[in-house]
């Protein structure tokens, strides 16, 4: 089974390497990822100029464009026989309304628009705990074992957020949960070169009980089924 992998942190990101390690347990992954960081670009595509596709190694391609460009070129030119599109692992959560701004999620959403199923993976970050990418790989493999075995449906994709746990914490439960409707508060600080968005205390963001934000913040793997149509 061929698996197309992308992200929005760039082709050299450790989260993509962690996803690649997990994907190898389930098929033959092919990486088509942005040449550099593209966080927060949402579903932007490049259409007024050409998009360069660059071979970086065996089954590894860098796109000088956005995550949505990567999905398009990956499925049209590189791996049209891919069965799933996987994106991530993003360094930072994509919870609640974050999914509408996320390039990680947009790579999957673009694939779903063209008929491929997909899963977006993000790693929620806390400032007080070091990140363990090998552990994230193990958790992603657990999720893939479940989701890749499920029947696919037109318009359906999954958004997965991993919790950030202390080193000795037990393995987290996988919880299927709805998307929280709350966006981050609108807040800007003024600087010499303009106004800069400030997300405040991310951990204190508003959330409804049982939603993806609440699930991830309480130490569980949040899996949200999302539908485009």
Structural notes for this entry:
The protein is 24% helix and 26% strand. It has 229 residues and is of the alpha/beta class. The chain has one domain: Survival protein SurE-like phosphatase/nucleotidase (Stationary-phase Survival Protein Sure Homolog, Chain: A, 3-Layer(aba) Sandwich), CATH 3.40.1210. The strands form two sheets. A nine-stranded mixed beta sheet has the order 3-4-2-1-5-6-7-11-8, with helices on both faces. A two-stranded antiparallel ribbon has the order 9-10. Strand 9 and strand 10 (194-197) form a beta hairpin. The chain is globular and about 45 Å long.
Q: Quick gist of this model?
A:
The protein has 5 helices and 11 strands. With 229 residues, the chain is α/β, with parallel strands linked by helices. The chain has one domain: Survival protein SurE-like phosphatase/nucleotidase (Stationary-phase Survival Protein Sure Homolog, Chain: A, 3-Layer(aba) Sandwich).
How does the SSE layout of this entry go?
Layout: E1 2-6, H1 14-23, E2 28-34, E3 53-57, E4 60-63, H2 67-78, E5 84-91, H3 103-113, E6 118-123, H4 133-147, E7 156-162, E8 174-176, E9 188-191, E10 194-197, H5 212-217, E11 221-227
Parallel strand pairs: 1-2, 1-5, 2-4, 5-6, 6-7, 8-11
Antiparallel strand pairs: 3-4, 7-11, 9-10
């Amino acid at each position: 089974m061929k698996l197309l992998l992308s992200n929005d942190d760039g082709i050299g990101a450790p989260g993509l390497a962690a996803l690649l390690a997990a994907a190898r347990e389930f098929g033959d992954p092919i990486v088509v990822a942005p040449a550099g960081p593209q966080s927060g670009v949402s579903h932007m595509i490049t259409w007024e100029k050409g998009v360069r596709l660059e071979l970086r190694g065996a089954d590894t391609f860098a796109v000088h464009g956005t995550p949505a460009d990567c999905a398009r070129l990956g499925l049209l030119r590189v791996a049209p026989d891919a069965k799933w599109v996987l994106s991530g692992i993003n360094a930072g959560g994509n919870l609640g309304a974050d999914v509408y701004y996320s390039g990680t999620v947009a790579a999957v959403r673009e694939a779903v628009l063209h008929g491929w199923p997909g899963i977006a993976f993000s790693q929620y970050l806390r400032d007080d705990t070091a990140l363990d990418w090998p552990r994230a790989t193990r958790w992603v493999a657990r999720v893939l074992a479940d989701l890749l075995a499920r029947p696919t449906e037109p318009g359906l994709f999954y958004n997965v957020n991993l919790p950030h746990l202390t080193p000795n914490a037990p393995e987290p439960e996988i919880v299927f949960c709805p998307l929280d409707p709350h966006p981050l508060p609108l807040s800007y600080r003024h600087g010499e070169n303009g106004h800069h968005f400030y997300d405040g205390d991310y951990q204190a963001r508003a959330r409804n009980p049982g939603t993806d934000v609440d699930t991830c913040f309480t130490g569980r793997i949040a899996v949200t089924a999302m539908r485009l149509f």
